[in-house]
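SAMPLE LOG
Freezer: B-3
Tube label: C17
Construct: single chain, 113 aa
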Amino acid sequence: MNDFLIISNHLSEIVRSDCDRWNEYTQRLHFYRSPLYDPYINDDDYQDIDEMRNEVEKELDFLERSFKWYEKEKDKHDGGMYSWFYEEKYNDIRENKIKVRSEIQFYDDTTNY
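STRUCTURE (predicted):
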């Protein structure tokens, strides 16, 4: 297996584990937005959500760097044997970036009531 495929598989694993974190993050945000949430009772939870948002910001930064790398590789290998692979990874990362940005926006909307 060439080095590129090893790196790509590693990135795929990272993105997959991030999806689990996004799911947990989204569930918590929905809880904070629900009528059951009382910030006076659950004040410590805001610290948790701030930490989670910082993690999301780091992940967005990682996705931005990965996206730029795959964009260059995709253009470099256009029409080549692995071009479909680069195109697929490029699109996956682009979708993840959109999802992450919407999570951040949702967080901001939730905490700015």
